[in-house]
Queue: 2 jobs
Job 1
Amino acid sequence: MNPTLIIFLYIFLQIFFLLPIKDKRSRRRGFPWVTTLLVALNVVVYIGVAFTVYQQPHEPDQPYWLGIYPFMEVPYLIINHEGLGALSALTSTYLHADTGHLLGNMFVLWFFGRKVEDATGHVSFALLYTLCGFTASLMSVSVNTIITGGHIPGFGASGAIAGVMGAYLFLYSNEKVLTLVSTWLAPALPVIPGFCFIPIPIPLWLPAWVFILSQVAKDALLGQLAIEAYKLGQTLPLGVGVFAHIGGLLGGMLFIYLFIRPEVVAGQR
């Protein structure tokens, strides 16, 4: 695909800001314990890291997160069985760069996770989330080893959360979701500076697939742009784990078959 077209489409999608608020489907079972536990665990880990590792003195040319490097997903280390190896695919899922990174991920996890957990059960949801984290890491490591050399670390829960979104997409793609829709001007690419302007949002009931697939489209376009840069002998610093997102989403859509309750399947017929 032409890089200019990719950039144009990506910028166009970035203009629209979608924020899901609630859906019409009520939970049939009890409290979403696993979703709550995952959110709490991510918050606790972030607070612990932010007030310890992130506060440690470091050289000006060194990143503030250097202290958690062994726990991050580094393709080079995983392939060469160094550090934590494949286990870092799990530990990196509970690490976040800053408060905004954490809050954004936890909001999406809480919104989609409760309904998916309701459809699978507590233990099955925990397994689904973990498996999606590994499929996200598998995709990320495989692609980034080729296009970046495998030395750029990745971390964050977004890959596993993308899997939860994939499961939700499979289960409730046409579910109406109250979504705040607004437009904004923001950095469309990591290399293009900009600013943010969000007018009064418009609440609309949209099918769930609109929000989810809009996120997938952004990741796919940005990932394709990185691949095009690689073909030209360049490395595009994405700053976003787009390949992890895609891998997690595919994992969620695949593994939900293993964990969905039979009565949920029967109810969809």
Job 2
Amino acid sequence: MIYEKHARYIIPFDDVPSQRAIMPEISVEERRGNFVEVETGFPEEVAVNEAKRCLGCRRCLGCALCWAECKPEAIDFSMPDETFDLEFDDVVITAGQDNLFHTFSSDLGYGTYAHVITDLQFERMLSPTGPTDGFVMSPLDGQVPRRIALIQGHPEDGEDHLLSSVIFGVNESIVALHKTQDLEIVLVSPLCEAFKKDFLAETQEVKGLKLVEGKPIKVEKQGDSHELVLTYSTDDGEQQDKYDLIVVLTKPKLPPEIQSLSKKLDKEVVQS
């Protein structure tokens, strides 16, 4: 090693000052009554320049002070570049979230009634940083709902989707029940065998949550009131119940860039 390791005096110097970019936001008028993100994010050029404020404030001078001061001796300048071939059973690609989902029946009222929302919108509502500061309320009138239905948007889909979406719905229900007093939640969906075997007994113990094994048919408004009427089918025939808020369990849709990446890697993407 060309360097000698001994105590060194590190000369302090200030970072190169750089003006911080201001995050663009939509106007107050555009935020009202919806779940649109307030912060729109940086354009690519601004994001790159912002990153350079931290990553480009200093360049390596070749002084080896980092090597001298590293007590675990993790820095080795003599280490050559290497290429590794690694074998895995599965590769997990974290694609981020584009909030894309497969379309479902318009009979379920989404896009027609303001108090019919998706599970992703419900998740944002439950978040302390969401549009309602974590309070459960109807987007229609701002009132706290007393009866909420979570309904399956893709009842004919496979077991993987049914399992993941119902578990997601149960978790959202538990959070909502903890946040809201005197709340009743009904989850209407076909239940796959894996859910019945591993999660049904535990879910049935959740106070305030009722599971109904059935298929949603349609959602209609109850006269001049704000109540929604859900029609669904069970083994006992068609049933109807009234709710203040209805949440549709969606099926996530892969972003186009992930589909393109899977083709480049020549790998099949498994989506539940």
